[in-house]
Amino acid sequence: MDRNSFLEGSYLALSGGVGGAKLALGLSHILEESLSVVCNTGDDFSHFGLKICPDLDTVMYTLADLNDKDRGWGLADESWNFLDAMKTLGHDNWFQLGDRDLATHVTRTLLLEEGKSLSEVTQHLCTQLGIKSLIIPMSDQNVATKVGLKDGSWIPFQHYFVKEKCAPEVRAFKFDGIDDALPGPALEACLKNSDLKAIFICPSNPFVSIDPILSLPGVSTLLKEHPAPIIAVSPIVGGQAIKGPTAKMMSELDITQSAFSVAEHYASLLDGYVLDNEDHSLEEKCQTLGIDTHITQTVMNSLDDRINLATECLEFSKLILKSRI
Question: What are φ and ψ of residue 306, in 5° steps?
Fold first, then answer.
């Protein structure tokens, strides 16, 4: 691979947490400063008076090589003394806040209280951690993902995802505040940048990680109007989600649990779609949607896997561009 061949323009990735962070890491190893990663902030919430941004932090820790490789989230070599002390004092400990992780949330909260935007705070944190790629929140305004349950109630996403461990059956999702939110200034700048060579939708949950980004006013329009190819990597392999509750959600929403269903979900945006080797039989079916397809290994167990998949995605984007000439 000639890494320099990818450094003549800029690239954008849309990401949720753990699954998206894996591909973002692979892309960052190749592209470095040429990569921008926009992260879902619909999962953000306040806890113990602190501003928590789970997806932003997962991508940030991953690209800084500070993440816990076994759990996939949080910091490596973490301790839990603060949380244990809070439990002793009668507080609920359903959301895991590690001692070192706590410094990120305190810093973010203090800077926000000083009047800094979430974009400015995120850039400060990334600079302090030595991250070369640009990590940006999807919006500086608050957007809150709510999960509609089969019993008719709505609960905050983190209550569903962490406190309830994804156990309740879902019927719908909504993003409170989305109509009044604006795309983050760096996201808007990326989507208006004529030097943008490709846009990648990481293998994150389509419904609660990527849809909040796409639902921001004007974002889908800017994506459709941009000449850069938009390529999604399927988060479903062999009918199962590699990470998280995507397949479970699809079943409960009466959506067939397959990589093709994800292609259908994104179809109006996509130029290219990356399927895992295990789903090669779906290639022609995906192509009926008018989408170019690429088959490769998408399961990322190692750093080499992440870099190899990123390379495949970049080469695929070049092929799509070449086909337009």
Answer: -65, -45
